[in-house]
Design brief:
- The chain is an alpha/beta fold.
- The protein is built from 10 helices and 20 strands.
- The chain has an 8-stranded mixed beta sheet. A 6-stranded mixed beta sheet has the order 1-2-5-3-4-6.
Length: 528
Amino acid sequence: MRWRRNDTRTPGGDTPSAVRRALRSGVRGVRGVLTSTASRRIGTGLAVLAVTLAGTVLGVLLGGRQETDIGPFRAEMAITPSVDGGTTVAIPPLGALHLDSHTGLAHLSVRLGALDQRRTEALIDDPASITRASQTAVSDVTNGVIRVGVRTLAVSVLATLVLAALVFRRVRRVAWAGTLALLITGGSLGVAALSFRPDSIEEPRYEGLLVNAPAIVGDVRRIANDYGRYADQLQRMVGNVSQLYTTVSSLPIFEQTQGSVRILHVSDLHLNPAAWQVIRTVVEQFKIDVVVDTGDITDFGSEPEASFVGSINLLKVPYVFIRGNHDSAATAAAVDRQPNAVVLDNSIVTVAGVTIAGIPDPRFTPDKETSPPGSGALPETVAQVTGAGARLAETIRASSQPVHIAMVHDPASADALSGVVPLVLAGHTHSREVHDLPPVPGAPPTQLQVQGSTGGAGLRGLEGDQPTPLAMSVLYLDEERRLQAYDDIRLGGTGEAQVNLQRHVVNKGEPPTPTSPTGSPATPTPTR
């Protein structure tokens, strides 16, 4: 009898080893399927993340900017991707200052543009609005930052949704991309807001010409504190400027003959908008025929500052101007564009019957302090300044008509004009001074009048213990264009807004006789 081995084959004819092979193959297949699915999901996730980042960056670059008003300025705010955060305030072409204001992935840039003409005129017309503008500046910046943040968030999400729709064409993936964009952009802005450091304004880092800003305006915190006191005084001072007209009535009677001319001498406005209201009041109430400006109407001579001179047209009388060492060629061109302005550049003009010659300061030094000859100035600087006066004297001597007034910015330029003209007007020192120039044998005497700062020296006027007063003078010329008298006007003081007017009557052969119904004016702080 023969024994047979049991048949252990499966109905399909597979042996146990075949079964094991089949099982292993099945496991590998399932594992491959699972691995393939996980890979696809990871790949899809990475693709969604990449599209989200691309869309977010694109949206920030396209939509993360907003124009806003900060007082009379038109400013552009922008948010850009960054790993360090912080804020940059650009003041072209002067440079920029950088603030370590916050951390995060969002960098804020603020670019100050030109002064808006309409808002600047509104500030000048309404004295109280000067205070309101300073009080609302912080809220203007805050509102601008909020608007640019919301705009950045909205445009980033929208750009991501559009890009994701073009790439994936699936609603779920597009939704994921939009949600991620909202979280990334909103989270970055939130971190920036939560890490905001207000005291960073006290430690700015400067670039460009602004590296000299600390030397120009002094300690930031002290200037800010002083400005609060100064703004208070300025509002009352401008609001009470109508006292000028009342003051005139208490002066000794001054008889003006027919054909006489009234000239207002201003200088060194240094971008102070309050100066225009005072000038306009004096022009109207003193019935001024001509305004003469001996320079430094701006601080840096930059293009944005040029719009400040637009208020010249509001005066409605001729305005004769020479450049100071803080004024650029662009400043002079902006003044010259005003329909009632004349810019003198070693030239002569006759306005309201008065022949005036003028030459600009030969230097353009807005970024550093300048010194007059004799106070440590370099020899080449002395030669420049005195040479300007000599060139103007040659121009006057070559003229076929007599010149009544000569204009220079730095009084150091005036000596060469002694005996050439009867009256020389200057500025630059921010301190009022009147005296005769050294006489020239056989020539008539020449008087030099140096004006104080009609703009209170701008921010520089805050560096002293008290703000620099606003100063200007009214000159009275008779029908022969000889100086009869002049009124020195100063506005400002300690604790209250003072209006000081002092009249000087010029008697032939005698020194000027001063009269003052308002007491001694405050002493200005000489700065340049």
